[in-house]
Amino acid sequence: MKRVLAFGASSSKASINRTFAIYAANAMEDVEVEIIDLNDFEMPIFSVDRETENGIHPLAHRFKEHIKAADGILISFAEHNAAYSAAYKNIYDWASRIEKSFFYDKPLCLLATSPGARGGSRVLDIAFNAYSFANKNVVTRFSLPSFYENFKEGEGIVNFELKVGFFVELEKFKAAL
Ligand SMILES: Cc1cc2nc3c(=O)[nH]c(=O)nc-3n(C[C@H](O)[C@H](O)[C@H](O)COP(=O)(O)O)c2cc1C
């Protein structure tokens, strides 16, 4: 069975992106899902000086091991000031120092949601531009606007058009695993 690594790119305990990532990962049949929590990878803020003094932080290596063990990666990005959350960016910076390929050309499903009408589309643009350029495999994307109106616990996406659009992207990702 194919294995998907999923996480919300947020450190909030009540993260709606974590909720969305778990929903998306579990919506795929016949796929083994591993969920990770960015709080388990909290490191000092990356700096080249820290790296020179102490080497790459062990938690960055551990994060990369999860990526390595997966057939595909599904991430839902929290948007903080139109960009990645500091929690994700810090892990990304540390782990990006290990080797050139970050996602090993594995299929990526990039999601974002926010309480607002833009649905984290600006951070999703950043992630999609960066990872679709660097990654030779399928990279799908979907932004869910107005999370609290369009997503209900136990039901998932309740807006029909959004739900259809979401499953189109999810199926593309699954087919590439
Ligand atoms: C520091 C900070 C900056 C934020 N900036 C944005 C933003 O630029 N765009 C946006 O749509 N929401 C922004 N928000 C609101 C987040 O979308 C909201 O907190 C959302 O719940 C974050 O996702 P999470 O619950 O998965 O952490 C911001 C929230 C915080 C705490």
UniProtKB/TrEMBL annotation:
GO terms for cellular component: cytosol. Residues 3-141 form the NADPH-dependent FMN reductase-like domain. PANTHER family: CHROMATE REDUCTASE, NAD(P)H-DEPENDENT FMN REDUCTASE LOT6. InterPro entries: Flavoprotein-like_sf (IPR029039), FMN_Rdtase-like_dom (IPR005025), NAD(P)H-dep_reductase (IPR050712). GO terms for molecular function: FMN binding; oxidoreductase activity. This is NADPH-dependent FMN reductase. The lineage of its organism: Bacteria, Pseudomonadati, Bacteroidota, Cytophagia, Cytophagales. It comes from Arcticibacterium luteifluviistationis.
